[in-house]
Design a protein that fits this description.
mainly beta, two-stranded parallel sheet
C-alpha cells in the first residue's frame, strides 16, 4: 500500500522527527503538526495543505510543486537548496524564516507574512507578493525578476543592490524618508512611482 504523508509523519514523530527521500503526490493534508520536523530530499507535488503547522521545521533539498500552502504556518522555518514552483501561498506565515539557495517560481504569496525573514542567495521569478509583509527583512544576494510587489510593506528592509527594475512596485510601503530604497536599482518608468511617494509630480 502507498504510504501517505500523515503515516510517515506519525512514524517520524515516534522516532527522530525526520522525513527523508520521499515523494508525495496529490494529497490533501489537514491540520498536520510538523513542528520542528526535518525534511530532506522530499518532493510535494499537487498537494493541498490545510491549516498545517510547519513552525521551526527544516527543509533541505526539498521541492513544492503545484501545491497549496495558503494560510499555513512556517514561522521560524529553515530552507536550504529548495524549490517552490507554481504554488499558492496566500496569507502563509513565513515570518522569521531563513531562506538559503532557494528558488520561488511562478508562485502566489499575496498577503504572505515574511516579517524579519533572512534571504540569502535566493531567487524569486514571476511571483505575486502583492500586499505581503516584507518588513525588517535581511536580503543578501537576492535576485527578483517579474515580481508583483504592489502594496507590499517593505518597512525597514534595506533594498541596496536589489534589482527592482522589472518588478511592480506601485504603492509599496516604506518609511517616510524611503531609506529602504537607497541603492536599489529601478527603471526610468518607476521613478514616477517613487517620486509619488514624496508627493512629487513627474510630467
Amino acid at each position: 500500500s502507498i504510504k501517505m504523508f500523515i503515516d510517515d509523519l506519525t512514524m517520524a514523530r515516534g522516532e527522530d522527527d525526520e522525513i527523508v527521500n520521499k515523494i508525495y503526490e496529490k494529497e490533501t493534508i489537514t491540520s498536520a503538526d510538523c513542528y520542528q520536523v526535518s525534511f530532506q530530499n522530499v518532493t510535494f507535488s499537487g498537494c493541498s495543505f490545510i491549516e498545517c503547522d510547519f513552525e521551526k521545521a527544516t527543509f533541505y533539498d526539498c521541492t513544492f510543486e503545484k501545491c497549496d500552502l495558503s494560510n499555513c504556518n512556517f514561522q521560524e522555518s529553515y530552507w536550504k537548496n529548495c524549490r517552490i514552483a507554481n504554488c499558492k501561498g496566500h496569507g502563509a506565515d513565513l515570518s522569521r524564516t531563513i531562506l538559503k539557495q532557494t528558488r520561488f517560481e511562478e508562485s502566489v504569496f499575496a498577503y504572505g507574512l515574511f516579517t524579519e525573514s533572512k534571504w540569502e542567495n535566493t531567487e524569486l521569478k514571476g511571483c505575486d507578493l502583492s500586499n505581503a509583509a516584507l518588513t525588517e527583512c535581511a536580503l543578501k544576494k537576492v535576485k527578483l525578476s517579474g515580481i508583483d510587489l504592489r502594496g507590499a510593506e517593505l518597512f525597514q528592509t534595506p533594498l541596496k543592490g536589489i534589482i527592482l527594475s522589472d518588478c511592480n512596485i506601485a504603492g509599496i510601503v516604506v518609511s517616510e524618508n524611503a531609506l529602504e530604497l537607497k541603492g536599489a536599482v529601478i527603471s526610468y518608468s518607476q521613478t514616477a512611482e517613487i517620486a509619488e511617494m514624496f508627493g512629487v509630480i513627474v510630467q
